[in-house]
């Protein structure tokens, strides 16, 4: 059998809001959220206005893209870097004190390559407290990033990352334990 993309249907998928709200979000995102205008306050305000649950002290840098803000939770004092793309067909939860670095990609959707209609597969992503997703790293559908875990520069996580582990590569492999010293300089 060959792929038959004309048979594709997003079975069981809900956008979560009416299309007019999604269209309004896309407009606001293009003008304000993804723009190069400095400052986090307006980005936080608009994300909250469209249903995101954003904690205290969250820093959101320019260039952020969010598919559905109403499917996004960000805990207290987390940082979202420049050009991060949160492609959240399913819920994305980012814990407190997390860092999602420049151009990281959080992807909750994929397709079933074994089906002729290329059926949609969606699974949530959870990034636990204190984790760091480094620049240009990718977190795939259904991945749980353990507390304090690090996904290194350009690495791809398609499976869960254990707490306090440092992971690198494609696919991401455990390198060593993350140890944080008692003092900062």
Spell out the key features of this protein.
185 residues; alpha/beta; UDP N-Acetylglucosamine Acyltransferase, domain 1; 7-stranded mixed sheet; 5-stranded parallel sheet; 2 helices
Describe the fold and architecture.
- The chain is an alpha/beta fold and 185 residues long.
- 13% of the residues lie in helices and 27% in strands.
- The chain has a single domain (18-176), classed as 3 Solenoid (UDP N-Acetylglucosamine Acyltransferase, domain 1), CATH 2.160.10.
- It has helices at residues 19-33, 41-49; strands at residues 53-54, 59-60, 65-66, 72-74, 79-80, 85-87, 92-94, 99-100, 105-107, 109-111, 120-122, 125-127, 132-133, 138-139, 144-145, 150-151, 156-157, 165-168, 173-177.
- The strands form four sheets. The chain has a seven-stranded mixed beta sheet. Strands 1-4-7-12-15 form a five-stranded parallel beta sheet, with helices on one face. A five-stranded parallel beta sheet has the order 3-6-9-14-17, with no helix packed on it.
- β18 and β19 form a beta hairpin.
- The longest helix has 15 residues, at 19-33.
- The chain is globular.
């Amino acid at each position: 059998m060959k792929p038959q993309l004309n048979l594709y249907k997003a079975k069981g998928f809900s956008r979560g809001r009416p299309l007019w709200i999604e269209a309004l979000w896309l407009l606001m995102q293009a003008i304000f959220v993804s723009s190069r205008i400095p400052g986090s306050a307006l980005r936080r305000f608009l994300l909250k206005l469209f249903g995101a649950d954003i904690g205290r002290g969250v820093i959101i840098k320019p260039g952020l893209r969010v598919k559905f803000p109403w499917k996004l939770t960000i805990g207290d004092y987390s940082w979202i870097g420049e050009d991060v793309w949160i492609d959240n067909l399913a819920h994305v939860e980012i814990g407190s004190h997390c860092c999602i670095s420049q151009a990281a990609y959080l992807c909750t959707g994929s397709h079933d390559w074994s089906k002729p209609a290329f059926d949609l597969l969606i699974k949530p992503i959870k990034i636990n407290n204190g984790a760091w997703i480094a620049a240009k790293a990718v977190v795939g559908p259904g991945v749980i990033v353990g507390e304090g875990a690090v996904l290194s520069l350009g690495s791809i996580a398609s499976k869960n990352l254990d707490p306090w582990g440092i992971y690198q590569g494609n696919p991401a492999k455990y390198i060593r334990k993350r140890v944080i010293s008692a003092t900062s300089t």
